[in-house]
Amino acid sequence: MESIGVLMTCEMHGELEEKLASRFKLFKLWNYPSFQAFSKTHANSIRALVVNTKLGADVNTIDSFPNLEIVSTYSVGLDHIDLKKCKEKGIRVSNTPDVLTDDVADQAIALALAVFRKIPQSDRFVKTAMWTSDYPLTTKFSGKAVGIVGLGRIGSAIAKRAAAFGCPISYHSRSEKPEAGPYKYYPNILDLAANSQVLIVACSLNEQTYHIVNRNVIDALGPEGVIVNIGRGKHIDEPELVSALVEGRLGGAGLDVFENEPNVPEELLGLENVVLTPHVGSDTVETCNDMADLVVANLEAHFLGKPLLTPVL
Ligand code: NAP
After folding, report:
1. Is 176 a catalytic residue?
2. In this protein, which residues make up the domain named D-isomer specific 2-hydroxyacid dehydrogenase NAD-binding (predicted)?
3. Domain limits at 25?
């Protein structure tokens, strides 16, 4: 295996780099002056790509490596990979589902609690010695009507957690889930938003879910409503979200993902009803180690002619 060329498109978890380097001939794209400079000399050596949400595999990348056999993404989301092109060329694709589900669901609940209970603001209040008077009252999260967009692995884990807070759960997905028991299904996201106090976005990003949260959905949620997004930034029409928050047409937002990461709209930075995290939903040591193991195990399985552990294609 040591002679098999594997290219990482950008820096990821240190342990992933170490594991890949100990098993394969690892190339790190960021050590080269440009993609063109790298592919000019090494294009024929690359049989596997390891990508993530920051730098994926578009048509140009895929076409640049004539001997490419597999793309293994250090993520569960697939929106940064041209799956159609991979399928056309018979290139395998694997991702890292399940191992990150708990962390991302935890982050969604943490964001909801942080917005309603103003955790970052009250932390600043104590640390900056402002505790000379009582802190203003905040808003209760327990019992709020929670609407989940995308009742997949992560959406279901969020539902389980929110239910433990006494929140009635509703959801919108492409199809109704018979296993979702008491959760109410809305075939239309507008109806979900109109009947929710907290809207949590947890679906995958595709052509149909691009800007699935638009002005109408935001207005249906209303001035007391809160949006939490741990899916992808492109699920929400960001300028519409910003103006709704600025104009008080939306109550608050907890956002882990943004349309043009790492750029965040300036207006969001000064808003007290908004809590922002830098796309860290799955970023715990434990989960990142598990994700790294899965990336490596998929590559090993492929090159040993065994079935992939978590195949996409
Ligand atoms: P999953 O199990 O595949 O669930 C995806 C969900 O999206 C399904 O419920 C699916 O509904 C729904 N969906 C897809 N297309 C839809 C559409 N057109 N309309 C409505 N719903 C639609 O994936 P997962 O493991 O839960 O992950 C979900 C997403 O979370 C990932 O794709 C990724 O973008 C994001 N994520 C973010 C972080 C972070 O750090 N913030 C970390 C990991 C993942 P059906 O079941 O009805 O098809």
Report:
1. no
2. 109-281
3. 5-97+285-303
